[in-house]
């Protein structure tokens, strides 16, 4: 995708969603961290259902730690992989209390030292809770980046680095959410809605016309009179 196309791509996504936000519910960086930890291989809707009561009863690291693994499982047992997630959440709370005064650290290294926290989770927390210009590449962003030609890469790290390089500064903070939401609701894995897509004219995916993207009109040559 050219520089000009990338500019248009993000201007359109911004126009469509001026204030994009994560669909996970949270009230503090701690709650965001826990929600993201729980969301691995689970839908945001299922996580929100479980955390509604959990965050009332255990809003911070100390209260969550006091719950212990078994009680925590009762809150999150509707979420996939809840056994391992409960263990990781309680271990994470212990480390937050022992090393970070119960607060969520603000560096990638410290975040990635927490159980169950990988690069993607760290990027989400740094971006969404602390306003840092990071790019958490999930399955949606990986697909949109490669398919549209915005940022091609063979793995998530390559796509992440490419996106950080090509996205203009003015869009970088919100780009993560725009791309996820675009991938989740429009540029879906199966049957993408190219006919309704606000960036179909700057997208480079060859198959977009088969999915309803408008075919650009060719300029008719001027006839001499
Ligand atoms: S035109 Fe289709 S493939 Fe391209 S970004 Fe839009 S939905 Fe995705």
UniProtKB/TrEMBL annotation:
- Which annotated residues bind [4Fe-4S] cluster? 187, 194, 197, 203
Q: Which cofactor does it need?
A: [4Fe-4S] cluster
* Coiled-coil segments on the chain, per record: none
Return the CDD domains for the record: ENDO3c
Which terms under GO biological process does the entry name?
A: base-excision repair, AP site formation
Catalysed reaction equations from the record? 2'-deoxyribonucleotide-(2'-deoxyribose 5'-phosphate)-2'-deoxyribonucleotide-DNA = a 3'-end 2'-deoxyribonucleotide-(2,3-dehydro-2,3-deoxyribose 5'-phosphate)-DNA + a 5'-end 5'-phospho-2'-deoxyribonucleoside-DNA + H(+)
- Highest taxon listed in the record's lineage: Bacteria
What name goes with this protein? Endonuclease III
